[in-house]
Amino acid sequence: MTSPGSTPPPGGDPGEVALGHLTGPDGLGDRVDAALAGGAARVVATHDADDDALAWAAARAGLRREGVLRGVLVGGRRRDVALVARLAGDPDPASDALPALTPLFPASVLAAGLVLRDHRGRVLLLRTSYKVPWEVPGGFVEAAESLGGAAAREGREELGLDLTVGRLLVLDRCPGDASRPGRLLALLDGGVHDDDLPGRCTFVDGEVLEAAWCTPTEVRARTGPGLAARVAAAVAVLDADDPAPALLVEGRPGR
């Protein structure tokens, strides 16, 4: 089904068949198959971005989500719509629906940070140029990187040091919402170092301004509540010599 007066995505491609704005799943798979059987190279449609049931129906018809168009005029009012399409060379959803379904699965970004301590138990924090709360060394895990590999790379990029990365200490799951993806935030053991380590750091790109050893009180004062909770959990794991990492949900114990 399509909405009367709907505004399909810009066309003009003779090999593209636009189904318009979808309002229901009835016969959708048959319509897509018929368009491809008729020689279409691409079948495209839109549906309300917040219509989860229709999103899954479109995916089962092999229509992959390509993005969200904001403020599109549909049926006399503006709304956010999902742009979906299936190409002639895409897998048949009857035998392999996963490529079309995958964009609908909950997405999370993965980040790895390092807990470096001195012989007095203080933790290394960084003052950066792009945010007020201080941070531990770390960043997002790139494609094909391991947690340890990402943490080691961030140590080189942010501190100018080659660090030995140890075991996983904390994994904190922070669910996402419509405006941001979920996050999996990991802290790994960066080892115990001498007092002079901050002075040996090299900051090359202006992102990091200062590195300093911080007591537990200073960690709580200088970081956001989420990172403070993760650092405290990491230190507790290290102090207890616990072989299992702490599992948190938004900084609180959970699974």
From TrEMBL:
Highest taxon above the source species: Bacteria
Domain spans labelled Nudix hydrolase: 107-236
Q: Which Gene3D superfamilies match?
A: 3.40.630.30, Nucleoside Triphosphate Pyrophosphohydrolase
Q: Does the keyword rRNA-binding apply?
A: no
Skewed-composition ranges (Pro residues): 1-12
Instruction: Report whether Magnesium shows up as a keyword of the record.
Output: yes
Query: Which PANTHER family does this UniProt record tie to the protein?
Result: GDP-MANNOSE MANNOSYL HYDROLASE
Official protein name in the record: ADP-ribose pyrophosphatase YjhB (NUDIX family)
